[in-house]
């Protein structure tokens, strides 16, 4: 049995196609994150699972039950909204009880569930207050508690952390991860924040332009992005994308950078690399500042950002190509220093003109 | 230092005065057109007066006379009866219409326009339309009655039917205002609350009573106060439809004031009646406000 199964789902708003033939299977108990830029359709997809948007084409199953024809209240899902969506004129206790009384859950059972949820989210002291008397963080905890007491078979989160300040966001993120461990319920979480996606997800679904770009574990998405878009969207600082000439080197590919540097990669040669518009993707941590005798490339530091455990050096190659590079430990690099760079090509990616990514042959271990 | 303080003082004094300047135009109009006439009216109500001014002060004599005047007492009753007939109906019907038409279809937009349209008509037009509908020989109501073989009722000529007929006319005329106010309030309710309620398995009735009505309770109170004040001032409809008859059954307070003042030139007596109306409206509105604001706190 799967948690959620979507088959060839499409959705239009008037003439605009907002979900374009999406198929996806979520495992039972899995934490799935929909990640993508605004307007990519990720929230719409979530709302279609909830039943808040109709499905124009395709089917949605939750467990064994086909739900795309059912009203939201019967789908056995609970949703946490971006703007909390607490009922403003009810106390938090009444908010939590509302869905349960509608389902005719016995009163003592309701009281028991509310106590349990309130104590695990530490909102017991706010139970008799109205949402208007609580801070944003407290309101979001109340909204999460409202979802928990329903004991649904599926949790849906629509950018629940985006209205919280940075510290509170990090804390709530950890609490959500713990909640998932505790309950083991399937969760679908929508965000445009890649940190949330990387830290929370069992698997990430990257959406762009109303379609799925890639489905994979966080490290798969990071290490082996399926497209140039995914590579650029995930990872801070952003991946370096460099113009280069691809040279066939036996079965593999050698990258000749515009400044004359030649880098051997383990990416199998493909004839489409010879076309215009082919680019090389290198994560900043794959380009390290080293002493010139260890270097396989030379550059000049332009901007140095010290982040503590590592330092980002924005370096310029001889031909003017800009690279984001990393220096470990206490960096002594200063702007306009000549620096040696060691480029590690083991995780390099080649993007062909159509946006697809080509990786090194998968090492089986 | 001292200079700085003086500067700050000057600045705040200027801020105060410039603020007053901004409200001055309205304040002048308010004093001239509302406050002064109000005080003059109160003064006049304590006197015997005519078109040429106050003849003599008579103390509370006008008021004593008023409360012994069966015609005046009848008009007070008539007005209360009319308010009771119209205000709850206008509020409930306006709310139901707003609930029905609060959607983004073209059809709903057209219907909103139609229901609001009657509100912009003048009282002359409205009463003319309804007189044509209600007259016993040839009116629409009479045609309907004849077609089902019933005796046509003389709605405006019958003591029991005249006031309800005026009330129905007024509801038809005035339904646009509460509807628009309710529509505005309904559109303020955040959509995601309804979505949360839908996921919480709430039925439509439960949504109405647990989500919608509590969310627009301020507007319900506002509509009640506005309509109470408005309907207490009933005047044009009975003046044009029944002339206050039959047998004073549709004569409201304002018509009494008008006729006493401008037909019989008893300006002091009319002023006293106006003060009673003022007190009545203030009292009812205050009670209404108290009740609704207490509910809000509780």
From TrEMBL, chain A:
Keywords, in A-Z order: ATP-binding, Nucleotide-binding, Transport
Entry keyword annotation includes Nucleotide-binding: yes
GO molecular function terms listed in the Swiss-Prot or TrEMBL record: ATP binding
Gene3D superfamilies, alphabetized: 2.40.50.100, Nucleic acid-binding proteins (2.40.50.140), P-loop containing nucleotide triphosphate hydrolases (3.40.50.300)
Similarity-based family: Belongs to the ABC transporter superfamily.
The name this protein goes by in its record: Sn-glycerol-3-phosphate ABC transporter ATP-binding protein UgpC
Pfam families: ABC_tran, TOBE_2
Domain ABC transporter stretches: 4-234
SMART domains: AAA
Organism listed in the record: Aurantiacibacter flavus
Transmembrane segments: none
Automatic annotation (TrEMBL), chain B:
Major localization listed first in the record, in broad terms: membrane
Keyword Transmembrane helix attached: yes
Transmembrane helix as UniProt keyword: yes
Compartments, record wording: Cell membrane
Topology in membrane: Multi-pass membrane protein
Domain of life: Bacteria
Transmembrane stretches, start-end: 20-40, 80-101, 113-133, 161-186, 207-232, 267-287
CDD domains per the UniProt record, alphabetical: TM_PBP2
Location of the ABC transmembrane type-1 domain: 76-288
The name this protein goes by in its record: Sugar ABC transporter permease
Organism: Aurantiacibacter flavus
